[in-house]
Amino acid sequence: MAAALGAWWMLAVSVPVLVVMALVTCWQRHIALVVLLTFTAVGTRGAAAVDALDPPEAGSFSGWVTLLDDPRPVGTVGVVATVRHERKRLTAVAHGATAARLDDALAGERLLLSGRIAPVDPQDAFAHWRHIVGRLTVGSVEGREPGSPVSRFANTVRRTLVDGAGTLSRSDRAIFLGMVIGDDRGQTAVVADDFRAAGLGHLLVVSGQNVAFVLAVVAPLAGRFRPAFRALWLFAALLLFAVITRFEPSVLRAVAMAGAGIGASVMGTPIDGKRALSWAVAGLLLIDPFLVHLVAFQLSVAATAGIVWWSARLADRFAGPAWLRVPMATTATAQLAVSPVLLGLFGPLPLASLPANLLAGPISGAVMVWGCTGGLLAGVIGGIAAEIIHLPSKVMLWWIGSVASRAALGPQATLGAVSIVLLGGAALLAMSKVRLMTLVAGVIALLVALVALVSAPTLGAGEHRLTGESRAIVSDNGNLVLVLDNPPTRALVESLRVAGGGKPKLAIALDGDRSDAEAVLALTERFGEFPVAAPPMHRVPGGRTVQAGQTVDIDELTLRFERVEPRLEMSVRRGVGS
Would the pTM of this model clear 0.70, i.e. be above it? Predict the structure, then answer.
């Protein structure tokens, strides 16, 4: 707690004062002094990190940079990545043919780039907390090197996993790579939204539980080593996994926590999960105080804290076999612990989260273990053997994807702040030693769920704004007409789901351009085929060109296309339809 508060407030003192505080703390060894020293040391470190954010001068650029993450698509023909140049972090953006030369690059590689550089917006908090000080618009890529030996080996492992996953479908491959190595670049808007609707978004990116499964795979190989060599072997495996997964905040938390546990065991003083988490958080924030501002780090720490402090107590109060009680308690405590952060940032939480995690969580663990073993083997062997090896992957991914898609297509029941408080109170009652309190807790949880289901939104008759200028028109019989006006695909998919809208009876692409086409493809992925009206020279797959003056009747709605060029203009009249 002291480390987190120090990283948040960043109150600095001089180095001599800090040294004196450390000496006094070592002499007295009082917990109050330890807390004060931790708070002050992390705060001083954070203030120094802020001072180090020295933005570059605007102008031309030419030099070698090191990729810190894998290039991601941006816009229609561009990529964006974080790079390091002379100890400064920059956001590098490229378009067109230049982007194509960066598309297959991986973190750790070195690139000789030329272009224009400018300081980032001082108000850009996201860049600030990631130590990014400038924006590099890449004009050309003039050279490329593979990077350090560790980066080369990590990238070889990643490419081997990607090659082995080539036998999977596009959707399954994106989910598989996200779950195993944290590569979420290939995930479609619908897949991401399905998992968000089910409260399974944490499965699409690498998380702390991946570290546990990696240790489960590599630990038996170190069984015959002496304790010191076993620790070195496990530390090396943890470091390599952190490099492969690009030092994601949740992975950093898990690696530091596992490292603290391994180190304490070697020294003959084993520690429990609570102390390991505390040491991990304090150590990481001393290294990089800005981590406290990253949502992924906040969620990872909160979820782990909920598990290590409350899950065992809650599991003891549940009835039934351990294989059911433990996952239920673990999922419930993790979800309750992260809910304050999620509520503050993203609004109400999906009711489907708890059952979806119970159904998909254990299978996701099997996918991660199989990905670290069979997935690598499939990449090495290739061909028909890789397809056979990935048959279990296909079955497991089908199950996880089905759980997520059912949640996205079902009632969008959510839990607000009041519901979360009631469920938290129910959890506290369930952890008491009075059986009657456990029964009361169950009744409270059931009532909260029923109220959320009854209150789930649905699109009633009338016109509804979705995202931007796109809207939904619903007839008295519940048939939906979707009017697309250059919508961002992800925002449209999410807003339609959250509003309670289902499969469109008709979609109208006003411009018929690329954004409309992407939106139609995403909705088709979720709902299946449906008719689409579009203007002449449109780019919408399966779209039907309409003529000026043409009308369409849907129940009591009469849609008339007044103009078709350069874009559709329509009027809507309610009356007796044909």
Answer: yes
